[in-house]
């Protein structure tokens, strides 16, 4: 066995912890006989603090009669073998177990650090669509231009805004999130721009607004489509001049804050309907990131589920060790209308309510989805076909809008609208 494995022999759990911190090992072997209370606690701490090591226990059968040892092995160890190990057959079986534990850990490692990308703020994924978003974040973060993040509710638009902030030169400054749809109409003006003492009834002191609080940092305006029309004028002025006026004051305040906005509605359509200022829309939409819904990155679903399982398991006393095969299949087939937010909520619910070693579809509330295969709506099929034909038309015309519009049988204005609708860059 020694010829095939690189082995660290230690007799103290604290020394083992130091070795694993400097040089992680995929597999660990621990002898559990004759443990003092202190040693038991140290070993429990060791195996609990090393999630990327699969531990195998060695112990005499009589040790399994102690409830504490049984619980330790059951809760924290990959497998166990009985002592002594005099026979060649037993040694071969142990080596086979070590090899299997090593292989399983190698399968997990690329998912966590090699084949997939994990940005700040729990952004996880390896699908083509999310990798495109990660690439856009890297390119956009270094600029100071406004960014408009679009996508369905629950796709992680605020996480992307945070990633842009953390990767920017403003990372040492504040990140101030504002949900424009959650603020009352009567307060949103003073909340965004601040107010002076006595500016209105109840204004007992001067208040610094959210935009001013983001000075030298980033202001994130979520649900920007809910911003009232009259306040859109003030926001436009700030974007143009980088100045604000507090309510009840004529003094001009200079504010150096980057604006990132997000929406789950079609702002272009709102502009056409007169519900959103066109000039503000173009000011905000200098750079655009389209966040894909979870159903369009199906290969990330299981990865995300396992990732959030590990993160959320620390909050509960769940006996679960992972997901059943049926649960993984049902998650992959589910449509996820609530996107990543719904996935997190279902995993959290399963950890709280589940009573099994493996989380089931019933624990996730997905048992009825087995009879409902994932299908695309007619609208989604139409959009995909429309987007593909536009790209072909642009390619065939050498990116000439006039010729592409003629080939597609639409006007130039319509083609420009379709380019914006599908977020197609010329």
UniProtKB/TrEMBL annotation:
Residues of the Sigma-54 factor interaction domain: 123-352
Residues annotated as signal peptide: none
Keywords: ATP-binding, DNA-binding, Nucleotide-binding, Plasmid, Transcription, Transcription regulation
PANTHER family with a match to the protein in the record: TRANSCRIPTIONAL REGULATOR-RELATED, TRANSCRIPTIONAL REGULATORY PROTEIN
Name recorded for this polypeptide: Sigma-54-dependent Fis family transcriptional regulator
């Amino acid at each position: 066995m020694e010829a095939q494995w690189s082995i660290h022999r230690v007799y103290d759990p604290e020394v083992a912890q130091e070795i694993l911190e400097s040089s992680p090992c995929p597999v660990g072997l621990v002898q559990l006989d004759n443990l003092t209370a202190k040693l038991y606690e140290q070993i429990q701490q060791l195996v609990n603090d090393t999630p990327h090591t699969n531990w195998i226990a060695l112990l005499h059968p009589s040790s399994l009669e102690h409830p504490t040892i049984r619980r330790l092995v059951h809760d924290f160890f990959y497998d166990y073998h009985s002592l002594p190990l005099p026979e060649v057959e037993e040694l071969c079986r142990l080596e086979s177990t070590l090899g299997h534990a090593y292989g399983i850990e190698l399968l997990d490692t690329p998912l966590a650090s090699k084949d997939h990308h994990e940005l700040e703020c729990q952004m996880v994924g390896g699908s083509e669509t999310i990798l495109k978003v990660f690439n856009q974040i890297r390119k956009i973060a270094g600029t100071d231009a406004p960014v408009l993040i679009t996508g369905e509710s629950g796709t992680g638009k605020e996480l992307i805004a945070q990633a842009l902030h953390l990767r920017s030169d403003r990372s040492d400054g504040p990140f101030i999130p504002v949900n424009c749809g959650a603020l009352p109409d009567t307060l949103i003006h003073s909340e965004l721009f601040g107010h002076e003492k006595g500016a209105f009834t109840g204004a007992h002191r001067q208040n610094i607004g959210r935009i001013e609080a983001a000075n030298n940092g980033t202001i994130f305006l979520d649900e920007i489509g809910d911003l009232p029309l009259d306040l859109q004028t003030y926001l436009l002025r700030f974007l143009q001049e980088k100045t604000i006026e507090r309510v009840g004051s004529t003094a001009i305040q200079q504010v150096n804050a980057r604006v990132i906005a997000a929406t789950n509605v079609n702002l272009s359509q709102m502009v056409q309907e007169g519900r959103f200022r066109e000039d503000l829309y173009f000011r905000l939409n200098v750079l655009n990131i389209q966040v894909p819904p979870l159903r369009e990155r199906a290969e990330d679903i299981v990865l995300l589920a396992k990732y959030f399982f590990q993160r959320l398991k620390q909050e509960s006393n769940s006996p679960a060790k992972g997901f059943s095969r049926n649960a993984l299949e049902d998650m992959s087939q589910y449509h996820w209308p609530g996107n990543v937010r719904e996935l997190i909520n279902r995993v959290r619910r399963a950890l709280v309510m589940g009573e099994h070693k493996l989380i089931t579809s019933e624990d996730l509330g997905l048992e009825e989805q087995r009879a409902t295969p994932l299908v695309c709506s007619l609208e989604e099929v139409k959009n995909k076909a429309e987007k593909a034909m536009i790209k072909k038309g642009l390619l065939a015309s050498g990116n000439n809008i006039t010729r592409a519009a003629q080939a597609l049988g639409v006007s130039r204005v319509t083609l420009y609208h379709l380019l914006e609708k599908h977020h197609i860059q010329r």
